[in-house]
Amino acid sequence: MKKLLFLALIICACQGPEVAPPAPVYPIPSERQLAWHDLEYYGFVHFNMNTFSDMEWGMGDEDPADFNPTSLDTRQWAKVAKEAGMKGIIITAKHHDGFCLWPSAYTEHSVKNSPWKNGKGDLIQELRDACDEFGLKMGIYYSPWDRNHADYGTPEYINYMRNQLTELLTNYGEIFEVWFDGANGGTGYYGGANENRYVDKLTYYDWPNIYALVRELQPGAVLFSDGGPDVRWVGNEEGYAYETTWSNLMRDSVYAGMPEYPEKYASGQEDGTHWVPAEADVSIRPGWYYHEYEDHKVKTLPQLLDIYYNSIGRNAALLINFPVDRRGLIHEKDVEQIMKLSTKIKEDFAIDLAQIAKFSASNERGKGFEIKQVLNEDKNKYWAAEDGVIHNEIVIQFPQKQKINRFMVQEHIVLGQRVKAFTLEAKTEKGWELIHKGTTIGTKRILRFDDVDTDALRFTITDAKASPTLSRIGVYHAPALLIEPMLKRNKSGAMTLIVPGSNVDIYYTLDGSNPGINSLKYERPVMMDQAVQLKAISHDPATGQLSEILVQDLDMAKAKWSVIHTDPNAEKAIYEDPSTFWQSTADELTIDLGEVITLYGFTYLPPQNRFMSGVINRYVFQSSFDGRTWTDRALGEFSNIYNNPIEQTIRFDGVEARYIRLKALGTTDGLKGSFAELGVITRDN
């Protein structure tokens, strides 16, 4: 017995004494934020009055009788989210139009006055039950703006807002996130006033007391808005975080809806005062609410995969929106695509090659902080360097050559975000070759690169705020994904289809049928000067693999069109090149179509450059036979166009015209209206 005890003492002595963990580098996440980080991926559901009015932002004058889903099934929502790998669902309990999905005691503008379930329904409770059944967290979206309420803009409305939040946060169990939209103030119904009402977004809502109310009623919930206080908006609605994404934020300098937020604060700051990590929100379709004409515009698998890698893979959580349809179901096409993403993610990370490798580090803090800890799934285990040792090299040696194209690394964020710069190299016949040179890591960083055959990787931390920590490293080889063709079309109507960097064949159809290898084969540019729906597919003859189907509605070519303006640059508005735009001098664009045609609507694409200027948000569209006498055909707003600058589609009853004009009645920045592309709709469908 004494010999065994002596042996144990020798072993312990050889292992070395216990070492203290590194000191935190502030700011650091709270317990509620750490729980939120563990979720990583969850769903958004936009379903409300806008679903039935076919709008993105309702005006507030809608009739509750219009809300009448025929087959509402929140269990289907939860089942889809669960099978897709999501951890929760956030529901639009009240959007800007003010209609409430629960029978609120404080307004008549709610489901209690709708025909759905004879006014006895409570959609929030139904979703609560479904989330509980499928083991999902539930979150609440609540719009501070209310275009229905007569008191909006007055102090009385803040009491109304607090009362409704109390209902939502008291009656429906545990809430994991409360989501406040930054869009608020402007035109609205406002109880019949039908006017503009603007508020001071910084002070009007009394945010400190609103936040205190949420903390009191739901202490475990994180609060989302542009500036948090717990989770921040990523600054765009494309689902992309940034190459450099800090979880730190100058929180006291930010408020919901501030105009300069996307450019100045969205990517976080290295010296940020508070831990406010990014959430990347994106819709699986172009719009946030369901529109039947977007049924063929559901994001493709390559698009969704790019979103995954550029959000979760760049130190952000991912919030993917489902625009639930008028039946009250997630549309089958949306389900199909999100399940493809789930399957592909599992394929990409099926085998962690790091588990068969030998790790070594240029520096280790000591016992309990060895480099081997990065292979441990216990999130409380991590590698750490000694205090003051910033530059660290980690070598990953495989027993034999491996084909790799993914690298995943995570910091131990409990102690703060530290890494400022790193490199990844692979050992080849030429020596160490650089694969990637990066900046931040944070919760998770995933690198994608072309296949590399190597028997060793070298991950080097070149700069950090303090001695670095890492909780996980993973190495993978993801199966190749064949992408769908890309379409280019010039003003004359000549169509080009390409698949960058791939030796593949392209097949297409023009009759609405799905293409295959027996369809028309694309070999050279094809003239498409009339309205038609194109479907195209890529085919790899070496493997037999087929891509997703590209579906594109093409309308009449613009060969005969001309812009009526003395500035030759005005022609950029009809170039069919989304990378160019023209900023008008008189807030309007007038076009001679070259012939009389029948119009059923128009399309407007805002500028697509990073710093968009003159994005039209209120408009009037006019037509004319002679270019002198004009008739208004459509008047309205392009809702949410600043945050989601996609092509806007407006339809109306058929009308014959030779000339068209789009006039800007308002822009997002108050500058003269800009036009990347103006188009027309000549098919009545």
Automatic annotation (TrEMBL):
InterPro entries: FA58C, Fn3_assoc_repeat, Galactose-bd-like_sf, GH, Glyco_hydro_29, Glyco_hydro_29_N. Residues 538-683 form the F5/8 type C domain. It comes from the Bacteria. It is an enzyme of class 3 (hydrolase). The keyword Transcription does not apply. SUPFAM superfamilies: (Trans)glycosidases, Galactose-binding domain-like. Coiled coil: none annotated. Belongs to the glycosyl hydrolase 29 family. This is alpha-L-fucosidase.
